[in-house]
Structure formats: structure tokens, C-alpha cells
Amino acid sequence: MKYLCLELYKLKRRKVFLTFVLILGVELLFVFSNYGNNENFLGMIYDPNAPAWEDLIVGPATMNGLFLPILAAVIASRICDMEHRGNTWKLLECNNENRKAIWFCKFTVVAVLMLAAILIQALVIVAYGNAVGIVEPLPVKTLWEFVLGTVMVTFVVVTIQVFFSLVFANQLVPMSIGMIGALIGFISTLLPTGIRNILIWGNYAEMMVLGQDTSSGNLQSSELVVRNIDFLPLTILFIVGLIAFVLFEKKFQKYEY
Amino acid sequence: MLINAIRAENLKSRHSNMWVAVLILPLLTAAIGAIIYGINASANLYDGAVWQQLWLQTGLFYGYFFFPILIAICASYLWRLEHTNHNWNSLMTTPVSRSIIFIAKLVVLTKSILTAQVLLMVFIIIVGKVVFRFEQPIPINMLWWLFMGWFSALSVGAVQLYLSMRIRSFAVPVGLAVCLSIGGLAFHIAGLSEMFPYSQIILGLSSQDEVLSIDSITTLVPMVLVYTVLFVILATNHLKKADVVAG
User: Fold this and answer.
1) Closest CA to B16 of B155, B87, B109
2) Is residue A77 a contact partner of residue B171, using CB atoms and an 8 Å limit?
3) Helix count (H) and strand count (E) of chain A?
4) Which of B20, B32, B186 is facing A176, going by the closest CB pair?
């Protein structure tokens, strides 16, 4: 706990929170500014049988594949780069902060910020839906599933970003990984299910709770269908992420700076 | 003097890992473009100019977000060298004018951008010829698409270099690039693509499209140059007036 407080103290005047608010704010502004002009959504608001809430959840779910990997990469890089620049690794260890504590503190700070981003998204969805007066009852289960699924994928993304940001002094590497992750995450909705599940960031597409009904073979169908989030690939990814978390921690503990 | 400064910049980035990002992003973009094209082609959504369709599928999201992010990463890397190991002191005491320092970095950045564009074009040709076995000849216009994509990225390069010079963090300018890309998309949707660097890049990359009319080109080209010169002047003024923080 003491080291966690120290970690937060180190973030003072680093403008990490400003960057966080800016990126998340731009995402939410971009997503929710489109709903006001979306005839499809406006038509669903007063129809109790129309999936208006699901349509609202799909907005952030589509853009999360782009924004969350970049946000994780930027925050992780920001809080790890200061140790590289100041060459503080030996200093930290001399002050009894072992590698394990460093790893957990850095990971916790990034993970908490990412969790906050996801919860803020959920709150904005509920607030926006209530503000426009959606008649359909709020599908609480779907919303929680969206939050849980996004958290599971983001946990793995954060693990990757924190590890590479800690290990590479040259932040070009973790930022490039973040960029590639964002590319995969953003395009993933267009990829076939099997392929996108293999690609870590592609699993953000599983949170699309509303989609086109292409069961008739028409790829340009305008019929909407509510989908359940498939937690099987997400659970597999999460377990792999947990294993990676432990392996990365061990690797980091032995890493020579 | 400028040639020597460019040589020095080349030397500084010689053993960098910048090429990894410059190689992987076009490769991944081409692969994803091929998958999307393949899915749509199997549903018979295409006819006519197949090369144009393939380029469109590949370059669409690339121009919206990922090309600016790549430029931001390269720009951050070029200034990262100066922000570390007290190199600002060395840089500011070299007998080279401030504008030359910035322009040399811009030249090296544009070289990376051009490399990324050429690689993307090569990968698209491989996808078209080897994967989809297009019978249509490779259009000579591809060179024009390549050039316009590269040229319209100059203004973004200048903006990102300026941001990376002012902000000591490697990651923050990249994060800003994502936010500005959203702004670029908003400008593009509003039909003001020529007015904002991050939407100019979208317009330039869609040069195979009917969107890029002669009218657009006559506005786009001067606006790209205006933004590039503007940010070179801003950066030069900053380097002349502001005190550096070396560390």
C-alpha cells in the first residue's frame, strides 16, 4: 500500500490524469455525438420492443477496440518511462521496493485507471439513455456483461503494455504494440470470429451486443439482432492473460537493467 | 548545412527500431485489407476496378487513425533522443540554425512516411497479384495514390514533430494524435477536409476516389504547405526563445 501511494505521488504533475480524461473524453464525445443524428437510434427510443439500450452499448463497444489499447499504452508508457529516464531501478531496490512490488504497483495504477474508464463508459451509457428517455427497460445484465467482458480483455492488454513498457527503455516498442493492438481491435468487428479471437485485441468485438441479421446470407441486411456476449473465448483469453501475468512478473523480476 | 543536419539525423536514428513500426503497420494493414476485401468479394459486392476497391478497403481505416499514429510514434522517437541524456544542451550548442534542426527532423520523418507508403503499395500489389490473382493490370495511378498519401501526411508530420518537441513524454503526443485524428474525422465528415491536417491525410489517401476532385487538390496542396511552413516557423520560434530543459 505504501508503495502504491508512492506510485501515485510520482504521478503528480505528470498530467497522466489529464491525458486519461482527454482520450476518454474524445472517445465518449465522438461516440455519443453521433447518436443525436442517428435516425435509426432516434426511431428506437420510444419503441419499448426496440433494442435502444443495446444500440447505445454498441457505440463504445465499437470504439473501445481502438481507444482502450492506445489509452493503456499511453498510461503504461507514461508511468514506466519515468523510471527508465531517471534510471531509478537501482534506487528503488535500494529503498527496499522489490521488483514484485514495482510490478504490482505499476500494474495496479494502469489497471485501476482502465477500470475507471470502463465504468465511466457504463455510467455515460445509462445517463445518456435516461436523458433521451429510452422507453425500453435498461438491460442491466447486458450492461454488466459488457463491463465484465471489456474488463477481461483490457486486463490482458494492460498486462502486455505494462510488461513491455517496463522491459524496454525505448518506448517505441510498447507504443508500436499499442498501435498494432488498436488497429486489430478497431478492425476486429470486420474479421471472422475464429481469427479475431486468436488476436488478443480482436476480442473487443465480442462486446457487440447488437448486430446485423445476416442469417439469410445478405451481408447488407438492415435487420438488427440482439446478441449475447460469448464468454468462452473471453474466459480462455483471461486465463491465458493470468498465466502471462505470472510469467511476465517472473521475467521482470530477473530482468537486468 | 541542411544536408549535414539530415545526415546527422539519419545517423542518430540508424540503429533505432523505427523500421519495425514502419514495416509492421503497412503489413498488418494490407493483411486486414485483404481479409475484408476477400469477405466482401465472396458476397459479390465488387465489380469493375478491383485494384481501386482493394486500395479503398486497405487505406480506409489506415488514413483515419493508424497512419497519423505511426507518424506520431516516429516523430516522438526523433525527439526522444534529444529529451534524454542531456542532449538538448548538445543540440542547442551546435552551430546549426534552429530552423535547420527542425527541418532536418522533418525530412527524416517524411522519409519514414514515404517508406511506409511504398511498403503498403508493395503489399497491396502482392495481395492483388498473388492472393486474389487480379487479371486487370496494375494501374499506373497507384503512384499518384502513393504520392498524394505521402504529401498530405507532411502537415501531420510537422504538427507531430512540434508536439513531440514541446512535450517531453514519448506517449502523450501519440495519445494526442489519436484525439486529433478524431477531430480530423469530424472535419472530413463536415466536408472541410482541406482545412485540418488530420483530415488532409484522409483526403490524400482517398486520392483514388471521386472525392479528390481538382478543386480539392487546388485547396489541399496549398493548405498542406501552409500548415507545414506554419509549424516549422512555430518550432523555430520556440527553439529560439524558450529555454531548454535537459535531462
Assistant:
1) B109
2) yes
3) 10, 2
4) B20
- Please check whether residue B155 is in contact with residue B224, taking contact to mean a CB–CB distance below 8 angstroms: yes
The three grid cell numbers given for residue B55, joined into one nine-digit string: 486500395
Task: Summarize pLDDT for B116-135 with one digit per residue, the tens.
Answer: 999 999 999 999 999 888 88
Strand partners, A210: A226
DSSP character at residue B138 = P
Rounded mean pLDDT, B57-72: 86
pLDDT in tens, A12-43: 777 788 889 999 999 999 999 888 888 888 88
Of B70, B75, B90, B80, the residue nearest B178 (C-alpha): B70
Mutate to test the interface with A, among B20, B32, B78 (most CBs of A within 10 A): B32
Check if the beta carbon of residue A201 is closer than 8 Å to that of residue A181.
yes
- As a whole number of angstroms, the distance between CA A239 and CA A242 comes to 5
Rounded mean pLDDT, A141-147: 93
CB pairs under 8 A between A and B: 116
Buried residues in A208-217 as b, exposed as e (16+ CB within 10 A): bbbbeeeeee
Of residues B116, B121, B212, B102, the one with CA closest to residue B160? B102
Cα→Cα distances B108→A234, B3, B71, B74, B117, Å? 42, 11, 11, 9, 14
> DSSP letter at A211?
E
Task: Give me the pLDDT at residue B246, please.
Answer: 66
Q: What string of H, E and C letters represents the secondary structure of B78-129? A: HHHHHHCCCHHHHHHHCCCCHHHHHHHHHHHHHHHHHHHHHHHHHHHHHHHH
Sign of the dihedral through C-alpha A43, A46, A51, A52: positive
pTM: 0.88
Pick from A183, A200, A212, A216 the residue to mutate for testing the B interface (most B CBs within 10 Å).
A183
Give, for A23, the enclosing helix (H) or strand (E).
Answer: helix A16-35
Name the minimum distance, in Å, from the CA of A2 to any CA of chain B.
26
Mean pLDDT score of chain B: 87
Contact B127, B30 (CB under 8 A): yes
Nearest to A190 among B36, B174, B182 (CB): B36
Contact of B60 with chain A, judged by CB distance below 8 Å, is answered with no
Over residues B183-237, the pLDDT tens digits come to 998 898 888 888 999 999 988 887 556 555 666 778 889 999 999 999 999 999 9
Task: Classify the complex by whether its ipTM is higher than 0.95, answering yes or no.
Answer: no
At residue B39, the pLDDT reads 80
Distance CA B100, CA B163 (A): 17
What helix, strand, coil percent values describe chain B, rounded to 5?
Answer: 80, 0, 20
Picking from A74-88, B41-55, B155-169, which range would have the lowest pLDDT averaged per residue?
B41-55
